[in-house]
Amino acid sequence: MTTVVFFLMPGVHLLDLAGPAQVFSTAADFGQPYDLAYVAESPTVVSGQGLPLTADTAWPPLGPDDLVVVPGRRAPTVDAVLAAPVGDPVLAALRGHHARGGTVASVCAGADVLGRAGLLDGRRCTTHHDVQEDLARRWPRATVVRDVLFTSDDRIVTSAGIASGIDLALHLVAVRHGPAFAARVARDMVVYARRNGHEPQTSAMLRHRSHLDDVVHRVQNLLDERFAEALPLTGLARAAGVGERTLTRLFTRATGGLTPLRYQQALRLERAEHLIAHGSTVEAAARAVGFEDPRMLRRLRARAESAV
Predict the structure, then answer these.
(1) Which of the two residues, 109 and 198, has the higher pLDDT score?
(2) Which of 5, 109, 115, 234 is deepest in the core (most CB within 10 A)?
(3) Which of 93, 108, 120, 191 is catalytic?
(4) CATH of domain 2-178
(5) Once rounded to an integer, what is the mean pLDDT over residues 103-127?
(6) pLDDT at 206 (0 to 100)
(7) Residue 125 appears among annotated catalytic residues
(8) What is the pLDDT of residue 203?
(9) Is the pTM of this model over 0.85?
């Protein structure tokens, strides 16, 4: 059983908390062993949106496989947002969990609490765009990364603002259980497959999801989950209950010009770029995303670079 502890500060943003909590709760519904816990310095915490929340004041036992998440908070000023009233015992708990091999994450301005615990020193991090400069000034030994949704550095995972906590949590689920499982969780939450924090803040999985064609969405769901497999047009059309020519016509119209094959290639390319950015060779990344010949991946990368 993996315990996910959410530390709640006064004024906690509901979506900072609810987004990641929903991801791990949905993962548990699908059979993964997650147990969610909520800890605060007082038994009642009033959220930034005025909703009172109850929490435990004692931390549960935590091991290396467990996760602590610090959501951000709402306050009248930037200084107040970054000066959340958090005591030394909480900071010691965060440091101790990380020192024992555990993962510590933050959403939005929750990154400042990690900074006070000494966990941002020498590491990459991010936060909401409104407080990025202030966070960088407060913790000059950290590298604050702009214009990403989340960063991960030595089991310190930080995300930008509000809804990006969902991206952070889906990333952690994908790392632990694979991208296909994360895509299943995302689809159940009606966010489909989400963006990656180390890549531009748009992706094929989002750019081509703004349409209302249920047939195309069903095919995209299949491609999102099984993009590394060989998925002939015949099988996709059969799964969608339409003919091949009809599927191609509907898909191209809904996605602004992409065929199912080009959409699948875009998914493979984005995943391969993520793997390469994390130290994989082009050959290994090509195999991981389903290309039998790495030359195909090289051609797609060259085509994407020339289009920039």
Answers:
(1) 109
(2) 109
(3) 108
(4) 3.40.50.880
(5) 96
(6) 56
(7) no
(8) 53
(9) no
